[in-house]
Give the backbone structure.
Amino acid sequence: MNILAVSINHRTAPVELREAFHLSLDEIKSMIHHAKEELFSEGLIISTCNRTELYGIPKDQELDVLDIQNFIFNYKNNRDVKPENFQTFASMEAIRHLFKLISGIDSLLIGDNQIYHQVKESFLTSEEMQFAGVLMKRIFDAATKTGKRAISETEISEGAVTVSYAAVQLVEKIFSNLSKKTALIIGAGESGELAAKHFKDRGIGRLVITNRTLERAEKIARALDSEAISFSTFKEKLHEFDIILSATSAENTILSKEEIKNSMKKRNYSSMVIMDIAIPRDIDPAAKEIDYVFYHDIDALNIIVEQNLSKRKFEIPRVEKIIDEEIEAFVSWYNSLEVAPTIKDLRDYFESIRVEEVGKNKNRFSSEDQEKVEIITKRIINKILHQPTVELKKINELGTSPEETAVKVSVLRDIFGINYNKKNNE
Amino acid sequence: MNSTIIYFNILLPILYSCTFGIYAFDFWKGGKRFTNSKRVFLFLTLFLHLVYLLCRTVFFNHPPITNVFEIFTILAFSVSFSYFILELVTDIRGTGPFIIIISIIFQIISSVFIKETPVVKDILRSNLLGIHVFNALVGYSGITVSAVYGFLYLTLYKDIKLNRFGLIFNRLPNLEVLETLSYYSAVIGFIFLTFAIIIGIIWLPKAFPNFRFTDPKLIGTFTVWIIYGIGILSKTFGKWRGKKVVFLSIVGFVIAILSTMFTNFLSTSFHSFY
């Protein structure tokens, strides 16, 4: 199969280079436009924060991966990139790489199912730009099926693998219904914002954000349809919160054990979960000694993250098995593209000989016998072609590689001169 | 028929052990391989246990409530049956091994020591007694299940507090669910225990005119009833929650078991039938 792929990703290039080669949606569209003109009849461009990849069916059989690398290099005009910063794939290896990518096993964060949606969006862009033909559409279907199977049939995407999501997972091990709970996020930085989003996604009943700069807290609160309160007054309302997540850049602790103990008394010792993901820590760790206070700092949450990552790594062989199955199904379909026309051409060729020879000798038979001759000759042709047809169909069923199929089909066509005869007839 | 009963008597501990094995393996390994088959296996075990109880009733011509070891086999059945219903209703499937092991213990005790009661006392053929025993057994099953969930609550509580994110953390339902399961099992157990006590009090003077209010069975039963009553009321009115309530549930269960053992094996009580 004549498909080529070039990738610049987290395995091959440092973050500066990956950033330099990152493509916005407009850039992808513009690049597709150029790629259609210069390189590919159909293809796909994927660009995320960790990778930029080009897949395509070359217009010219002579085109190789170096041409594609040069194309990317010229498009971005970056002089720091070296050939070793590119990973290249040809034929089925390119398809396999795409299947691994969409399943999440090639991601920096193994099992990250965000990549599944990103690849899907890239395919839609290709379709929109009329860059996806029959082959790319089929590859898209097979890839999305592989990604879906990996997510549903294995645990490759199970469990939290980021600290902020681990915090949510831990909270869900204490409370059964987050819609009835109230959470306070202290600190409106990147970590606080991410955690706030996770809580909102999990359906938290009431979300309150506080920050030294109130405007920043208000901005996030507006975006997440939640509340913002002043940093100077949040301690007075501490007892109202079932979950407290702190992620400020304060140098000293902002909540003492005594303050938490007092708020626990006010809430009649109803469980309170405290997540301190700041470094240095925002909350006095001695708070963990209070009954019904579940205090966890970043080290504790990292234990969950590490455990989940190990579990995901353990799932990789199961995902690879799914990829193998889907590759086999795809190859079978692809081979049928070569095999089915060959069977038809072979039969047409033999039929044309039969018709010609019967036509030539038709007058030697009586009108009653002519019909018998038709039947007998057809039967002879069918018997001769039975075994070759069975063998050709077997190529599909056994999942032979496209290269091997191409050789077998080509030999057969050459022996009977099918291509030559077809051209002559045309 | 007798050989069938003997055969079942040996088979049941094996069946419960196999069911426990499947639940424990699934708990250990996780995944979805035995999610449905373990439930089917539990159902088959319970079905065969029911057949055994019916066989005993038909062959010995009385329901199997005439001695403490017959009671143990019914308890083994009702504890696992309660769990089976709970699993169907809540779809919480990760706690099976902790409940089924109780049934294994009860069934092994029953299978090893059970004998035919040669002469069944007339008082044990009373209809009121049948209702009393039924209520008591459902009540004890309820408090057993409540104690198990209470124990699981305490274990998970401790694990979370100490940052131990192992099997218990990964497989058990969350703390609120465990507390709720423990509480509702205790409420069901308490209600049936109350009925059992009321029926017992009505029936007691007729069956045993010389009974004493200081009888160990009466003291033990009332202690258990009061402990559960305090726990349920405190929880209902929001005074106590979490650890305190489940601890009380575990204490109530331990006293109930000790009281049964003491009444039947160590002391002389009107309730000693064996």
